[in-house]
Amino acid sequence: MEAVLANNAEAFFQIGGIGLVVYIVCNFALRRYLAPDSDVFEQIFDRPIFGTITRAPMHIKTKYFIPWVPSPEYLHKESLWVKTLFWGARLGGTVLAVGIAAFLLSAIYIATNG
């Protein structure tokens, strides 16, 4: 475990970056393919923290990054392309969170153990 944390900090950061790119691309495409007034759009997307800056929901709800949270109930009615984009964004967000958490753990490990 020590060797993994000490030697792979840069790799963890890059993995998080790959997750970020996948999330952004899939999230953007998913917002373009779904109608803003549909039920599944409201179930998937959430308003940003600073909701007064923009009115449009921008990001997938964070709860969908957790693997055991089920998909939205209306997603099964959508096309295979929409389902694929949702799962791509979901996987990208999860990889981003895990990659950044691993990077921070490795940075803390390196800082405390020299």
Task: Provide a compact summary of the structure.
By secondary structure, the chain is mostly helical. 62% of the residues lie in helices and 4% in strands.
Q: Shape from CA axes? A: elongated
String of helices and strands: HHHEEH
Strand count, sense and barrel status of the largest sheet are:
2 strands, antiparallel
Q: Given the helix and strand composition, which structural class is it?
A: mainly alpha
Note poorly predicted spans: none
Q: Describe it for me?
A:
- It is a single chain.
- The chain has 114 residues and is mainly alpha-helical.
- The protein has one domain (2-113).
- The chain has four helices and two strands; from the N terminus they run αααββα.
- It has helices at residues 2-7, 9-33, 39-44, 80-113; strands spanning 45-46, 59-60.
- Helix 2 (9-33) packs antiparallel against helix 4 (80-113).
What keyword list fits this structure?
114 residues; single chain; elongated; mainly alpha
Helix and strand arrangement:
Blueprint: H1 2-7, H2 9-33, H3 39-44, E1 45-46, E2 59-60, H4 80-113
Antiparallel strand pairs: 1-2
